[in-house]
Design goal:
Blueprint: E1 4-13, E2 16-26, E3 31-35, H1 42-50, E4 57-62, E5 65-66, H2 72-78, E6 79-82, H3 94-99, H4 114-126, H5 142-156, E7 160-164, H6 172-183, E8 188-192, H7 196-202, E9 205-210, E10 213-218, H8 220-223, H9 226-233, E11 236-240, E12 248-252, H10 255-270
Parallel strand pairs: 3-8, 3-9, 6-7, 7-8
Antiparallel strand pairs: 1-2, 1-4, 4-5, 9-10, 11-12
Length: 271
C-alpha cells in the first residue's frame, strides 16, 4: 500500500498554472528524484506534498488520509524537510539546531532529558559531526550545515524525508557524501535534483516534470533517455551504460545553438 499518493494535483496562482494534473504514488522506503528545468514546478510540488500550499484541485493523501486533515504537528511527525536555503539569522549551536528535530514529539515547555541528548548525539555520530556539538551553526561550511540538517531530520523520526536540491552549492565530495548517507537512512526520500547524473546514481525512481506536468515516471534507465533530455532540457545527451545500474550522461548543446554561440563570439571579437 502506498505511503503517499498525489492524485491529479493542480496548483495555480491567479491564471498561472504551476502544476497540472500530477499523479503518482510513493511507497515505504523508496528514494524518488524529481527532475525538470527551472520553472517546471518541482519546489511547488514539494510544498504541496508538505501541506505548505493548498492544491487548487486534486488530492494528496498520506496513509490514505488527506494531508489537510492532519495538524501541523502531526505532519511534522511524518515529514522532515531539508530546504535549499537555511535561515541562519539565529546564532544557534549545532546541538540546538539538531535538537529542534525533537519539537514535534515534545510539549511546549518540556525540558531536555538525557534521552533527548542521547538522540542528538546518536544523530550527530551518524553523520560524523559529534566534534561540532558546541560549534555555532553559522560558522560551518555548506556541506557541514547540510549534514547537520540531515541529523536534525533523523532526530525528527519522520517517515518521509523531503529534500529540495540538497546538493546545491556543494562541491563534488559533499554532494556524493550527503546523497550516500541519505540513501542509507532507510526512510522514504523525495528530493528535487538538478544534476541528472546524481539522480541516476542515487535515486531508485525518477519523476520528470515539464511545464507543471509529469512527462516520465520510472527507473533512471527508463527516464533518462536522449529523447527525454532533448525534449525537456533542450540538450543533446549521450547515455553511457556503466557497470552499475545507473546510466551516465554526457551533454552538449544542439548544433544550431553551438553555431549561434560561435557567431556571437565572432561578432564580439570583430567589434
Amino acid at each position: 500500500m502506498p505511503l503517499l499518493v498525489a492524485d491529479k494535483v493542480s496548483y495555480q496562482i491567479n491564471q498561472l498554472q504551476i502544476l497540472d494534473q500530477i499523479s503518482f504514488a510513493v511507497g515505504q522506503g523508496e528514494i524518488v528524484g524529481i527532475i525538470g528545468p527551472n520553472g517546471a514546478g518541482k519546489t511547488t510540488l514539494l510544498k504541496c506534498l508538505l501541506g505548505h500550499l493548498n492544491v487548487s484541485s486534486g488530492s494528496i493523501k498520506l496513509k490514505q488520509k488527506p494531508i489537510d486533515q492532519y495538524s501541523t504537528k502531526a505532519l511534522a511527525k511524518h515529514f522532515a524537510l531539508v530546504a535549499q536555503k537555511t535561515d541562519s539569522s539565529f546564532n544557534l549551536t549545532v546541538f540546538d539546531v539538531v535538537k529542534m528535530g525533537l519539537l514535534p514529539h515534545k510539549n511546549l515547555f518540556s525540558l531536555d532529558s538525557d534521552h533527548d541528548r542521547n538522540q542528538v548525539t546518536i544523530a550527530l555520530k551518524k553523520f560524523d559531526l559529534q566534534h561540532l556539538l558546541k560549534h555555532s551553526f553559522n560558522t560551518l561550511s555548506g556541506g557541514e550545515q547540510q549534514r547537520i540538517l540531515l541529523a536534525r531530520a533523523l532526530v525528527q523520526r519522520a517517515q518521509i524525508l523531503i529534500l529540495d536540491e540538497p546538493t546545491n552549492h556543494l562541491d563534488i565530495y559533499y554532494q556524493h557524501q550527503i546523497l550516500q548517507q541519505v540513501s542509507q537512512l532507510g526512510v522514504t526520500v523525495i528530493m528535487t535534483v538538478h544534476d541528472l547524473n546524481l539522480a541516476a546514481q542515487y535515486c531508485q525512481r525518477i519523476i520528470a516534470l515539464d511545464k507543471g506536468r509529469v512527462v516520465a515516471d520510472n527507473t533512471p534507465t527508463q527516464v533518462l533517455t536522449s529523447a527525454l533530455i532533448k525534449s525537456v532540457f533542450k540538450l543533446n545527451a549521450q547515455v553511457i551504460e556503466t557497470s552499475s545500474s545507473a546510466p551516465q550522461l554526457l551533454f552538449s548543446l544542439p548544433v544550431d545553438e553551438q553555431q549561434h554561440n560561435t557567431n556571437t563570439e565572432g561578432s564580439d571579437v570583430s567589434r
